[in-house]
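Work Package 4 report. The design task specified in the project plan requires that, given a folded chain encoded as structure tokens, an amino acid be chosen for each position. We show below one input record used in the internal validation round.
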């Protein structure tokens, strides 16, 4: 008989009865005061033989009478489910067959379809108002065996319920007025006998009541409504309108269905008639046990066979979701306390109970049972949290997720209305968790302390045990900071890290203070000192981990406990470093480590040793500013002392290894390595300010030190060590340079001694080959800094040798030419395309003077004469003073006639060279140099008596081609003389007009208006000219001697008539 569902009282399922029986037995046997609440363990989950047999019978009955299509993740075959049950209950074959036969003889259940009409949407509007008054007729048609896709089946789907199902088996929903989206939420129980030939039918109708035309016109809203009025007029009064139907074969249903079904039409007039939301559940009319929701899984989930059986049982017995969740919570909360499965399995029943909680739905006994389950799980969860370090070790990858899941379960449980009503006396969960964590942290500390307790009770062993304990605490705090704290903060707003740090630092401080007090009263051995240092470093790391202190820590000022051990720490650091340096030098073979690394093994060991000292200093990082400064001074002093000791040791090692060496090249190799090692050491020492953080030290001690004290201590020590290393490096490089200087001097001397027939380029080859071999060797074996220093020494020595040889070869142009070419090639060699010395280091004052001298010495006599006139033309251009007087000329060149025309206009402000206070001036005109114009004789102007401002106004023409006039040094020499009757003419002065500046000489056009040129008179150099001196040294060159004699005569005349002051 189908009836509208209410909530009838049901007897408790068999599984719940079994649990209650077991709990009573346990409660009778257990002393409630036997253990405190936080130690509550899980009760036994074993069943008695009677309970086990009843439960096995229920599960067999469920499998034999399953209904509906299997779920996708469920097992289809009943044989597989029966085999699984036999294995799960540990039944023997005979016992299993016996119970199976008993169950098969039991009466079959009454099969029912639990159908819920939820709602509909988008249905047709049949009334004048555009809406409908829908209701549904539903029932089960039995005995129909027509296949679902046959024409007969389609015909029956068109039939309405009242034509296919007897009236007593037809059910009707309420009428929902004036809507197109009705909501019913009505449930019906429909019985059937054979699922294979039964179908569910639902018709939806629009209730049509008798109304007057006036009422219908009042509801009219549009033309569609008017059309419906005319349609109503043709219809029988009170006849309901068909809205659509749904037909579903029961054998196509799963045990539970929840879908939207389209409303099918009887004709094709309106194919889209909306949808209807239906829920189906195939059940038995036989009370059974509640099964857990199959959606809940632990591990990989219960076996699919078990999920299938539980699902079928709960469905067939029509257990409400609330009672299923209640049974699931009671079972899982107990099983969680004894079995290994994720606590997240408890979230689903918690959520379900909370959503459906109504306290009056449970009996007093059930409420007590639920409250006990809450208390037991909370106590068990707190015990796990207290021991979370061992229960959830990070060595297991899913431990953080498991702990987070447990906390979420406890949080959700404590938020439940059921928990608040049944466990009113429970403290807030964050408080309970905080207390559990504090207790667990202290317990964990004592366990670790006991674990590290040494077998031998000595001072060293006690220190090592304490060090291991502190290191374990640091590891634990890091885990709390990076992993666990995030979980507790996000879930409960509990700061696990800060709480654990505060608890542990008090415990650590007490034990460290006791240990250092014992050590301070006894001599400190190196081993104990090392243990103390490691303990100090670990405590520093522990304090750096801590949060910003809101109050004073127990570890504040802990460094004072270690103050007596500082001298032993510093001494041991130096002793260990010194021993390491000595051992490194003794094992060093003074061979480069590689092609790119040119220092030896001892330099690497020394760098590592200094890095270790710097690391020790950074580890120490003493908090007190004054003491920290003194410690830094000691570190720097020891480091500088080690550097100088290393220099002495490495030089002694080089002498030791080279003592038995006959090959001088091998000795040079070792010397190169020694110099490179020292250079590497200098680089390492130079990094001390950075490695020891001098800036930070200076900022810390600036307020307590006197002005300049830091500069006079740390910087003075460092500069002294660097200066000593620099001296040692320069000494080594100078020794290498001396080995090459003799060879360079020898090849330069050979350069000037070769036969004249040898070309200069060939003469310098031996010198360049020697340098190429030696410098390539040095570049291979020296680091760049030392190689540059060597190049500087060799360059200076080479220039000195060249200057000496050039001075001895002044009168030999050939030798000077070779030296000049040698200097050019040496400059290229030492520059080495930018890899050698820079131009600034090459172009010294000595180099520039030597280059000028060799340029002159290598030139021929005529080239020197030409250079002399170039210098006089330059002197003429730079002279602006007319203290000797001046001449005015006009000069032009006619290329068509190859004539140089000179108009000598006048002279002015001449010196009075006669005794009467005047002069008898005339001008001599010559084209210089004479070897360029050998055919042109000198010309002279008329003599003017007693005249210091003569007006000559004379014109001279020189027949000369343009080519010699355009050469460097070509000029018109204007010599102003004072005529003397009895003796030689006196020199008034000379003026030089460069021929290249004469108009018409460089162009093809004839000159137009020729400008006047005023030339101040000049004297030859009184102190001698270097070019004249060089020409004078060439005794065998007649042309040079004649030129020098004339120039000397002019200079002598100039010296006799120097201008009077103030003129």
């Amino acid at each position: 008989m189908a009836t509208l569902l209410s909530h009838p009282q049901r007897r408790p399922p068999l599984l719940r009865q079994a649990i209650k029986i077991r709990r009573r037995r346990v409660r009778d046997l257990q002393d409630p005061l036997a253990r405190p609440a936080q130690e509550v363990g899980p009760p036994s989950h074993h069943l008695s033989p009677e309970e086990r047999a009843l439960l096995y019978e229920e599960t067999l009955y469920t499998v034999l009478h399953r209904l509906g299509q299997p779920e996708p993740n469920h097992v289809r075959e009943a044989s597989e489910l029966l085999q699984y049950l036999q294995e799960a209950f540990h039944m023997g074959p005979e016992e299993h067959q016996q119970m199976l036969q008993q169950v098969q003889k039991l009466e079959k259940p009454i099969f029912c379809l639990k159908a819920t009409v939820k709602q509909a949407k988008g249905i047709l509007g049949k009334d004048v108002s555009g809406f409908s008054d829908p209701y549904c007729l539903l029932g089960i048609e039995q005995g129909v065996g027509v296949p679902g896709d046959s024409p007969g089946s389609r015909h029956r789907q068109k039939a309405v319920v009242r034509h296919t199902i007897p009236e007593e088996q037809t059910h009707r929903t309420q009428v929902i007025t004036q809507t197109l989206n009705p909501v019913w939420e009505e449930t019906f129980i429909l019985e059937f006998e054979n699922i294979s030939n039964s179908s569910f039918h639902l018709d939806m109708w629009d209730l049509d009541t008798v109304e007057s035309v006036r009422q219908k016109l009042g509801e009219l809203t549009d033309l569609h409504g008017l059309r419906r009025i005319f349609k109503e007029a043709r219809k029988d009064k009170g006849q309901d309108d068909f809205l659509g139907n749904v037909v579903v074969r029961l054998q196509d249903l799963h045990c539970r269905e929840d879908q939207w079904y389209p409303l099918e039409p009887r004709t094709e007039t309106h194919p889209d008639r909306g949808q209807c939301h239906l829920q189906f559940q195939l059940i038995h009319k036989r009370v059974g046990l509640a099964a857990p929701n199959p959606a809940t899984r632990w591990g990989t989930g219960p076996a699919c066979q078990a999920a299938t059986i539980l699902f079928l049982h709960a469905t067939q017995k029509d257990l409400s979701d609330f009672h299923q969740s209640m049974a699931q919570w009671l079972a899982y909360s107990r099983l969680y306390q004894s079995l290994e499965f994720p606590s997240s399995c408890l979230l689903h029943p918690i959520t379900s109970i909370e959503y459906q909680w109504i306290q009056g739905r449970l009996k007093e006994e059930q409420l007590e049972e639920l409250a006990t389950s809450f208390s037991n799980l909370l106590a068990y969860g707190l015990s796990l949290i207290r021991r979370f370090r061992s229960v959830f070790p990070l060595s297991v990858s899913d431990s953080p997720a498991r702990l987070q899941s447990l906390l979420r379960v406890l949080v959700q449980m404590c938020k439940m209305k059921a928990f608040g009503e049944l466990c009113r006396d429970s403290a807030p969960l964050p408080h309970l968790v905080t207390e559990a964590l504090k207790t667990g942290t202290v317990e964990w500390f004592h366990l670790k302390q006991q674990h590290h307790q040494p077998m031998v009770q000595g001072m060293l062993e006690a220190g090592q045990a304490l060090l291991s304990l502190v290191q374990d605490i640091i590891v634990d705090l890091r885990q709390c900071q990076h992993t666990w704290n995030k979980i507790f903060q996000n879930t409960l707003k509990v700061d696990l890290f800060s709480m654990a740090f505060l608890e542990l630092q008090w415990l650590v401080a007490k034990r460290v203070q006791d240990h250092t007090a014992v050590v301070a009263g006894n001599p400190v051995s190196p081993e104990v000192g090392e243990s103390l240092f490691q303990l100090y470093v670990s405590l520093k790391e522990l304090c750096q981990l801590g949060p910003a202190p809101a109050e004073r820590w127990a570890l504040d000022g802990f460094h004072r406990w270690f103050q007596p051990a500082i001298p032993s720490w510093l001494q041991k650091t130096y002793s260990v470093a010194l021993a390491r340096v000595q051992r490194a030098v003794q094992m060093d073979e003074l061979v480069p480590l590689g092609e790119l690394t040119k220092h030896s093994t001892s330099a690497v060991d020394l760098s590592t040793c200094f890095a270790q000292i710097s690391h020790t200093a950074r580890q120490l990082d003493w908090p007190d500013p004054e003491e920290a400064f003194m410690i830094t001074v000691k570190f720097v002093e020891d480091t500088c002392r080690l550097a100088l000791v290393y220099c002495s040791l490495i030089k002694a090692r080089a002498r030791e290894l080279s003592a038995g060496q006959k090959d001088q090249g091998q000795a040079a190799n070792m010397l190169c390595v020694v110099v490179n090692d020292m250079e590497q050491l200098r680089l390492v020492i130079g990094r001390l300010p950075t490695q020891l953080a001098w800036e930070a030290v200076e900022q810390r001690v600036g307020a307590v030190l006197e002005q300049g004290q830091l500069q006079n201590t740390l910087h003075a020590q460092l500069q002294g060590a660097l200066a000593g290393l620099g001296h040692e490096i320069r000494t080594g490089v100078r020794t290498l340079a001396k080995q090459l200087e003799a060879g360079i001097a020898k090849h330069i001397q050979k350069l000037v001694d070769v036969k004249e027939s040898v070309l200069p380029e060939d003469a310098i080859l031996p010198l360049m080959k020697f340098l190429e071999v030696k410098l390539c060797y040095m570049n291979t074996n020296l680091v760049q800094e030392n190689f540059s220093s060597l190049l500087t020494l060799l360059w200076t020595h080479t220039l000195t040798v060249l200057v000496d040889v050039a001075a001895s070869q002044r009168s030999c142009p050939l030798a000077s030419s070779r030296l000049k070419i040698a200097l050019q090639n040496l400059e290229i060699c030492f520059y080495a395309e930018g890899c050698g010395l820079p131009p600034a280091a090459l172009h010294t004052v000595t180099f520039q003077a030597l280059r000028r001298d060799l340029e002159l010495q290598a030139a021929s006599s005529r080239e020197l004469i030409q250079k002399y006139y170039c210098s006089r033309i330059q002197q003429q251009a730079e002279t602006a003073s007319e203290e000797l007087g001046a001449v005015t000329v006009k000069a032009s060149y006619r290329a068509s006639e190859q004539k140089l025309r000179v108009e000598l206009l006048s002279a002015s402000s001449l010196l009075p060279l006669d005794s009467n206070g005047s002069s008898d001036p005339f001008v001599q005109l010559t084209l210089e140099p004479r070897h360029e114009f050998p055919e042109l004789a000198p010309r002279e102007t008329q003599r003017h008596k007693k005249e210091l401002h003569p007006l000559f106004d004379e014109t001279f023409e020189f027949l000369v081609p343009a080519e010699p006039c355009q050469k460097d040094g070509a000029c018109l020499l204007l010599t102003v003389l004072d005529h003397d009757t009895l003796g030689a003419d006196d020199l008034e002065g000379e003026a030089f007009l460069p021929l290249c500046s004469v108009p018409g000489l460089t162009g093809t056009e004839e000159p137009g208006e020729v400008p006047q040129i005023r030339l101040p008179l000049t004297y030859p150099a009184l102190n001698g000219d270097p070019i004249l001196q060089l020409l004078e040294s060439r005794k065998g060159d007649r042309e040079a001697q004649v030129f020098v004699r004339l120039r000397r005569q002019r200079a002598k005349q100039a010296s006799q008539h120097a201008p009077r002051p103030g003129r």
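The two ends are 153 Å apart (CA to CA). Validation will be extended to a larger panel in the next phase.
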